[in-house]
Specification:
This protein is an alpha/beta fold. It has two helices and five strands; from the N terminus they run ββαβββα.
């Protein structure tokens, strides 16, 4: 459980959530929005699937839409599987395209890290846990239920 519900320094735009967190250790899950800021906000509102945070480096926009003590709605949650949204996932959408993430400057990466550090500490995310990153040369299709990531 997070030490705080809402972080200072973010524009608070409370949106619907998926209820209380029900399991798993706290972890941060980052996604790209695959579009610009206005389109991303429109899609999140239209689909009612907001993450905890939406970050845009270009405009320096920092939005928190879901309390850290509640589950967000951005992750896919198939019936009969793990309750992904409620499994300790602090969900972050970064306004960018996944194909361009390796082009981020050090300043951009640092900005995202500084934005997310307060959530990291407030939620007690274990810095000793690591998850391997798999790229396009991993030798398997990344977006499948059997992929190891």
């Amino acid at each position: 459980m997070a030490l705080v519900d809402w972080l200072d320094g973010f524009e608070h735009r409370p949106r619907g959530d998926s209820g209380p967190m029900t399991g798993g250790p706290a972890k941060m899950v980052l996604h790209s929005t695959e579009g610009g800021l206005a389109g991303s906000i429109g899609a999140l509102d239209g689909n009612n699937n907001w993450p905890h945070f939406l970050l845009d480096y270009g405009s320096k926009t920092k939005i928190q839409a879901v309390s850290l003590n509640r589950a967000a709605k951005s992750l896919a949650n198939k019936a009969g599987g793990v309750e992904t949204n409620k499994d300790g996932a602090i969900q972050v959408e970064i306004v960018t395209f996944a194909a361009h993430t390796q082009e981020m400057s050090d300043d951009e990466v640092d900005w995202y890290a500084q934005c997310l550090a307060p959530a990291y500490f407030a939620c007690g995310i274990d810095s000793r846990r690591t998850v391997p990153f798999y790229g396009q040369d991993a030798g398997f299709t990344l977006a499948t239920p059997s992929a190891p990531q």
